[in-house]
Design a protein that fits this description.
Length: 142
Amino acid sequence: MSYNIYQDNILDYSQNPRNKGTIENPDLHFRDVNPLCGDELEFFVKLDKNNKITDVKFQGSGCAISQAAASMVTEELMGKTLKDLINYDKKRILKLLGIEISPAREKCAFLSLRVLKLAAYSKLGKKELELKEKLDEEGLGY
Ligand code: FES
Protein backbone atom coordinates (compact mmCIF):
# COMPACT_ATOMS: atom_id res chain seq x y z
CA MET A 1 0.00 0.00 0.00
CA SER A 2 1.23 3.49 -0.74
CA TYR A 3 1.64 6.15 1.95
CA ASN A 4 -1.62 7.86 0.90
CA ILE A 5 -3.60 4.63 1.06
CA TYR A 6 -2.32 4.08 4.60
CA GLN A 7 -3.33 7.62 5.52
CA ASP A 8 -6.79 7.02 4.04
CA ASN A 9 -6.98 3.80 6.03
CA ILE A 10 -6.18 5.65 9.27
CA LEU A 11 -8.83 8.26 8.47
CA ASP A 12 -11.38 5.56 7.73
CA TYR A 13 -10.70 3.78 11.03
CA SER A 14 -10.89 7.02 12.99
CA GLN A 15 -14.09 8.19 11.31
CA ASN A 16 -15.78 4.77 11.25
CA PRO A 17 -14.31 3.08 14.30
CA ARG A 18 -14.72 -0.68 14.54
CA ASN A 19 -15.62 -2.19 17.90
CA LYS A 20 -16.44 1.10 19.57
CA GLY A 21 -18.63 0.60 22.62
CA THR A 22 -18.60 -1.02 26.02
CA ILE A 23 -18.89 -4.55 27.43
CA GLU A 24 -20.90 -5.45 30.54
CA ASN A 25 -18.76 -7.15 33.21
CA PRO A 26 -15.48 -7.17 31.27
CA ASP A 27 -12.63 -9.41 32.41
CA LEU A 28 -10.10 -6.70 31.57
CA HIS A 29 -10.88 -3.01 31.83
CA PHE A 30 -8.76 0.11 31.97
CA ARG A 31 -9.01 3.78 31.10
CA ASP A 32 -6.09 6.14 30.66
CA VAL A 33 -5.35 9.61 29.39
CA ASN A 34 -2.52 11.02 27.33
CA PRO A 35 -1.44 13.79 29.72
CA LEU A 36 0.05 15.83 26.88
CA CYS A 37 -3.28 16.42 25.15
CA GLY A 38 -6.01 15.05 27.41
CA ASP A 39 -7.13 12.44 24.87
CA GLU A 40 -8.40 9.27 26.46
CA LEU A 41 -9.07 5.64 25.73
CA GLU A 42 -10.94 2.98 27.68
CA PHE A 43 -10.80 -0.72 26.79
CA PHE A 44 -13.11 -3.58 27.72
CA VAL A 45 -12.05 -7.17 27.08
CA LYS A 46 -13.99 -10.38 27.58
CA LEU A 47 -12.04 -13.65 28.04
CA ASP A 48 -13.22 -17.24 28.00
CA LYS A 49 -12.02 -19.84 30.50
CA ASN A 50 -8.85 -20.44 28.44
CA ASN A 51 -8.01 -16.72 28.45
CA LYS A 52 -8.97 -16.39 24.81
CA ILE A 53 -10.33 -12.97 23.85
CA THR A 54 -13.97 -13.37 22.83
CA ASP A 55 -14.84 -9.67 22.65
CA VAL A 56 -13.00 -6.38 22.81
CA LYS A 57 -14.40 -2.88 22.65
CA PHE A 58 -13.10 0.60 23.24
CA GLN A 59 -14.32 4.09 23.73
CA GLY A 60 -12.68 7.43 24.03
CA SER A 61 -11.83 10.53 22.15
CA GLY A 62 -8.73 11.86 20.53
CA CYS A 63 -6.78 12.40 17.37
CA ALA A 64 -7.11 10.27 14.24
CA ILE A 65 -3.97 8.28 15.02
CA SER A 66 -4.93 7.32 18.59
CA GLN A 67 -8.48 6.40 17.62
CA ALA A 68 -7.48 4.49 14.47
CA ALA A 69 -4.81 2.52 16.35
CA ALA A 70 -7.38 1.61 19.04
CA SER A 71 -9.89 0.49 16.45
CA MET A 72 -7.32 -1.52 14.46
CA VAL A 73 -5.97 -3.27 17.52
CA THR A 74 -9.46 -4.40 18.62
CA GLU A 75 -9.87 -6.18 15.28
CA GLU A 76 -6.47 -7.81 15.63
CA LEU A 77 -7.08 -9.01 19.18
CA MET A 78 -10.37 -10.78 18.54
CA GLY A 79 -9.75 -14.50 19.03
CA LYS A 80 -6.22 -13.99 20.36
CA THR A 81 -5.19 -14.84 23.94
CA LEU A 82 -4.28 -12.80 26.99
CA LYS A 83 -0.68 -13.94 26.40
CA ASP A 84 -0.79 -12.61 22.83
CA LEU A 85 -2.02 -9.28 24.18
CA ILE A 86 0.84 -9.14 26.68
CA ASN A 87 3.29 -9.86 23.86
CA TYR A 88 1.97 -7.03 21.67
CA ASP A 89 4.57 -4.36 21.19
CA LYS A 90 5.09 -1.00 19.58
CA LYS A 91 6.32 -2.58 16.34
CA ARG A 92 2.99 -4.37 15.92
CA ILE A 93 1.06 -1.08 16.29
CA LEU A 94 3.33 0.68 13.80
CA LYS A 95 2.75 -2.16 11.35
CA LEU A 96 -1.01 -1.80 11.75
CA LEU A 97 -0.87 1.95 11.19
CA GLY A 98 1.49 1.53 8.25
CA ILE A 99 2.94 5.02 8.28
CA GLU A 100 6.01 6.55 9.82
CA ILE A 101 5.18 8.12 13.18
CA SER A 102 7.16 11.15 14.29
CA PRO A 103 8.43 11.21 17.88
CA ALA A 104 5.83 13.90 18.65
CA ARG A 105 2.99 11.53 17.66
CA GLU A 106 4.31 8.39 19.34
CA LYS A 107 2.14 8.84 22.42
CA CYS A 108 -0.89 9.01 20.12
CA ALA A 109 0.09 5.83 18.30
CA PHE A 110 0.82 3.87 21.45
CA LEU A 111 -1.96 5.07 23.77
CA SER A 112 -4.10 2.03 22.95
CA LEU A 113 -1.20 -0.34 23.60
CA ARG A 114 -0.51 1.37 26.93
CA VAL A 115 -4.13 1.09 28.07
CA LEU A 116 -4.45 -2.55 26.96
CA LYS A 117 -1.22 -3.45 28.75
CA LEU A 118 -2.45 -1.69 31.89
CA ALA A 119 -5.67 -3.71 31.68
CA ALA A 120 -3.77 -6.99 31.22
CA TYR A 121 -1.17 -6.33 33.91
CA SER A 122 -3.86 -5.24 36.37
CA LYS A 123 -5.65 -8.55 35.74
CA LEU A 124 -2.40 -10.34 36.55
CA GLY A 125 -2.37 -8.55 39.90
CA LYS A 126 0.48 -6.11 39.31
CA LYS A 127 0.56 -3.25 41.78
CA GLU A 128 0.85 0.41 40.78
CA LEU A 129 4.64 0.62 41.07
CA GLU A 130 5.13 -2.63 39.14
CA LEU A 131 2.77 -1.36 36.44
CA LYS A 132 4.81 1.80 36.07
CA GLU A 133 8.07 -0.16 35.85
CA LYS A 134 6.67 -2.58 33.26
CA LEU A 135 5.41 0.26 31.07
CA ASP A 136 8.73 2.10 31.35
CA GLU A 137 10.54 -1.11 30.30
CA GLU A 138 8.35 -1.33 27.20
CA GLY A 139 8.77 2.34 26.30
CA LEU A 140 5.14 3.06 27.12
CA GLY A 141 5.65 5.17 30.26
CA TYR A 142 4.89 8.87 30.68
FE1 FES B 1 -3.91 13.32 21.82
FE2 FES B 1 -3.00 12.21 19.68
S1 FES B 1 -3.15 14.35 20.05
S2 FES B 1 -3.57 11.21 21.51
